[in-house]
Amino acid sequence: MTDAAASARRTALVLRHDSAIGLGNLGPTLEAHGYEVVTIDAPVTDVAALDPLAADLVVVLGGEEGAYETDRYPYLADELRLLRTRIEAEAPIFGVCLGAQMLAAALGANVYPGERKEVGWLEVTPTAAGSDSPVRHFAGVPAVQWHGDTFDLPEGVERLASSDQYANQAFRRGEWLLAVQFHPEVTARIHEDWLTAWGDELPAYGLTSAQLRAERAHLGPRAEAASAALLGDYLDGIESRAEAAA
Question: What are the tens digits of pLDDT across the range 62-79?
Answer without folding.
Answer: 999 999 999 999 999 999
